[in-house]
Structures are given as C-alpha cells and as structure tokens.
Amino acid sequence: MVLEVRPVIDWDKGKAVEFLLQSLGLSDSENVIPIYIGDDRTDEDAFKVLRERNCGYGILVSQVPKETEAFYSLRDPSEVMEFLNSLVRWKKHSL
C-alpha cells in the first residue's frame, strides 16, 4: 500500500520544478538542461512544465507504455542507472 500525504495548498511537482529553476536562477539558462525522471502520475505536472517551457526533458519510468507528457521513457530503475551512467561518461569525455 502506498500512502501519499499532500498539503492543502495549490502545489504540485510542476510548480516545484518552476520554483527550483527560478530560485536557482536557471529558468532562462542556456547552459543547463533540466532532466526530470519520474514513475508516478504526480510526476506528469513536472513533465508538462518542461515540455511547455521547452527547457528540459521529462523521462517516465514504466514497464508498460502509457500516455505521458514526458519526452522519453525507461523501463525500470536499472535502465535509469544505465542512462545516468551514460550521461556521466559523456560529460567526462566532453571535457
């Protein structure tokens, strides 16, 4: 059983992404590409913000294909790890 506790305010993961980008001064940065990885319907708000602002990439983690605002999908946590390791290797070689 999963229990999700939410405050009684107008707040979601999309608003959290916007808040982080703005508060860190990255909302208009051309040197930063936000990547949001999530596996839950509550992550769709964050995927949608990145898609609408055209400022990053949402990645859905799901074993089954489903409609999503994410740009890409990975099947499971092991694929997430493989993807993140690939990013690290790419960054090391691009220096």
Automatic annotation (TrEMBL):
EC number: 3.1.3.12
Record field: catalytic activity: alpha,alpha-trehalose 6-phosphate + H2O = alpha,alpha-trehalose + phosphate
Pathway(s) per entry: Glycan biosynthesis; trehalose biosynthesis
Keyword hit for Hydrolase: yes
InterPro entries, per database record: HAD-like_sf, HAD_sf, OTSB-like, Trehalose_PPase
Protein family (similarity comment): Belongs to the trehalose phosphatase family.
Protein name according to UniProt: Trehalose 6-phosphate phosphatase
The species this protein was found in: Aegilops tauschii subsp. strangulata (Goatgrass)
